[in-house]
Amino acid sequence: MIRLGLNIDHVATLRQARYRHESDSAHAEPDPVPLALLAEKAGAKGITVHLREDRRHIQDHDVRRLRKQIKTVLNLEMAVTPAMVAYALKLKPEEACLVPENRQEITTEGGLDLLGSERRVANAVARLVKGGIVPSLFIDPDPGQIDAAARIGAPCIELHTGAYANARTAAAIRRELERQWAAAEQAHALGLQVNAGHGLHYRNLAPFIETVPHLHTLNIGHSIVARAVEVGMAAAVKEIVAILKAKAQVKAKARK
Length: 256
Known about the structure:
With 256 residues, the protein is α/β, with parallel strands linked by helices. It is built from eleven helices and eight strands. The protein has an eight-stranded parallel β-barrel, surrounded by eight helices.
């Protein structure tokens, strides 16, 4: 079955709206760490956090506590900088996803441009691998970017699904699903593990996993956190896991 990785960043975003200057105090709420632990119990197979250079939501103390307390996989999203690579090597998450950062963006917009930064990204990937961390590259479903990921030596990519999530017409949705399908097939043929994420939610998830092959992990954040406001974190995670299980059973029957 496809693994669910919960991106917990937006819990911290809500906390920072009120407790920006005292996020580590006892009364700062909501606390992303206990909610991440609830998500694990409900079926999440990993916790993703983006420690941005400007520390706008997740803070260093959040990451340290998650590293100590979660029982599954910690996936650290990070910029491709010497400082963040050094941070990851000290923290030792199981996984690290290299992403672009723009100080003006609200959330990550678009994938890495590997074609313009192969040497820099390859150096970061090599250092992470040597440190026992599995690196992935957050890239658009573009053939040139996927080829570059393979040349760089990354074992894993995360396909940026934002264009699919933002598509509004049937033709646009179909076009973006075809791009994702082709990208996943290409990556798999090159020996890359295929993860995906950005903008996936309860309504667009089923068509995505019905169409796109070779998926290992889906990293979903905003949709689950938003749903958790209504039904609680455990229920919100279980609803996503139920979709993944149902589609896995359909695929298993189709193979028989």
